[in-house]
Amino acid sequence: MGVLLILHVIVCxxxxxxxxxxxxxxxSTGAVFGGGGSGTFFGPSGEVGFLGKAIVIxxxxxxxxxxxxxxxxxxxxxx
Length: 79
Known about the structure:
Elements: H1 2-21, H2 29-32, H3 50-73
Helix pairs in contact: 1-3
């Protein structure tokens, strides 16, 4: 369980870092005040790059480790 908890924390940090590193389609000062960034509310369009794929994989690993840690903490499963 300790190894799973360490993996979970590492995935959390990597996921936060990857999300903060990505730049939106209208990532400029004008987009903050409503200038030209109307399409970013519904997500970026176009091909998903390496960072986007990494975020999806990290999010899946995060969700799986969260469920497993929950099951361990409620003693539904044990090793």
